[in-house]
Design a protein that fits this description.
With 241 residues, the chain is mainly α. It has two domains: 112 residues, Helix-hairpin-Helix base-excision DNA repair enzymes (C-terminal) (Endonuclease Iii, domain 2), CATH 1.10.1670.10; 113 residues, Hypothetical protein, domain 2 (Endonuclease III, domain 1, Orthogonal Bundle), CATH 1.10.340. The chain has eleven helices and two strands. A two-stranded antiparallel ribbon has the order 1-2. Helix 2 crosses helix 8 and helix 7 crosses helix 8. It is globular. The two termini are 22 Å apart. The N terminus is likely disordered. The structure holds iron/sulfur cluster.
Length: 241
């Protein structure tokens, strides 16, 4: 096991794959139950708007939820539909999403993604509803073939738009999961996504994602985790008490 320290002074632990022992189902269920006792069971029915989810996820990069939402609302108010966003001069899209930060990069990326979807050889246009019937690996492969789209964005679309069995691993989920040792510390994002999927009880993908994320935001902060107040302290090998 190698130890490094990041800029915040938090100990970063890396466990090589050969030394990693995956968590038992009992341990995962115990953690799920403790998180459930604090945060409840999130209710978020699939909204069936995959393009909205895709664009929202691009806008969420490197900013907070509030700025992301302002940028998204401005984009929806400025343009009639996603086709209008795709065909607009880039400067207009960039101006609309400016409150979300790095708007030059994001506006270009959003338009590239929309054009790639529209250019599909099947002639579907800007329609991603085929994902509802596709298998999860097919959906992941298609979404990850779009410009700049990775596993996290693909999982957001599949899970939040259609309730399919995929789990996004963002910075909060990966940090909390690694500290709890249900995810391998130091694992690359591709592996983290595969592991999250494997360890999530079937039908509870959304619950585990949302409650780990909430815990990362409210208690298991990146810099100073509030371990004395943490409901998971007794089962966490990273607790600082
Ligand atoms: S005990 Fe501390 S490090 Fe472990 S999950 Fe709770 S807040 Fe995070």
């Amino acid at each position: 096991m190698a130890r490094k320290t990041d800029a915040s002074g938090d100990a970063l632990v890396t466990i090589p794959k050969g030394e990693w022992r995956r968590p038992t189902r009992r341990r995962v269920v115990g953690i799920r139950d403790k998180l459930r006792s604090v945060y409840g069971i999130p209710i978020m029915p699939p909204h069936e708007q995959p393009l909205d989810e895709l664009v929202l996820t691009v806008l969420s990069q490197s900013t907070n939820d509030r700025n992301r939402d302002v940028a998204y609302e401005r984009l929806r108010e400025r343009f009639d539909d996603w086709e209008a966003v795709m065909e607009a001069p880039n400067a207009e899209v960039e101006e609309a999403i400016r409150p979300g930060g790095i708007s030059k990069v994001k506006s270009k990326r959003i338009q590239e993604i929309l054009r790639a979807i529209d250019d599909s050889p099947e002639g579907r246009g800007l329609d991603l509803s085929f994902l509802r019937e596709a298998t999860v690996p097919e959906g992941q492969r298609y979404l990850c073939s779009l410009p700049g789209v990775g596993r996290k964005t693909a999982a957001c679309v599949l899970l939040f738009a259609y309730g399919l069995r995929d789990v996004p691993v963002d910075t909060h989920v990966s940090r909390v999961g690694m500290r709890l040792r249900i995810l391998r510390p130091g694992a690359p994002f591709e592996e983290l996504h595969d592991e999250m999927l494997d360890l999530s009880p079937r039908g509870e993908e959304l619950e585990l994602h949302v409650n780990l994320l909430r815990h990362g935001r409210r208690t298991c902060h990146a810099r100073r985790p509030d371990c004395p107040a943490c409901v998971l302290a007794r089962v966490c090998p990273s607790r600082q008490l």
